[in-house]
Amino acid sequence: MWQHQSPGGWHFVSLPMDLANEIRKNIGWQEEGWGRLKAMAKIGDNKWQTAIWYDTKKRTYLLPIKAEIRKKEALKTESTINTVIWV
Question: In this model, does residue 21 exceed pLDDT 90?
Fold first, then answer.
């Protein structure tokens, strides 16, 4: 998990590139504005409705991690997180 550099920046998980490529190849046509795909995510015992966004600079999808989830799961920036995503 990493934090965007802007003040109070959002926290994200970057999906592995092979997974992002597979998603884009198979359901990229469903992307909405800014490369957005609706998704469901799960970290630990917490599951929530969200979206992933395709980042053209990083060439992968980004999953935003809400403050509520970070707090419940005691997540720290720069940590590796096991995440389940349904798109």
Answer: yes
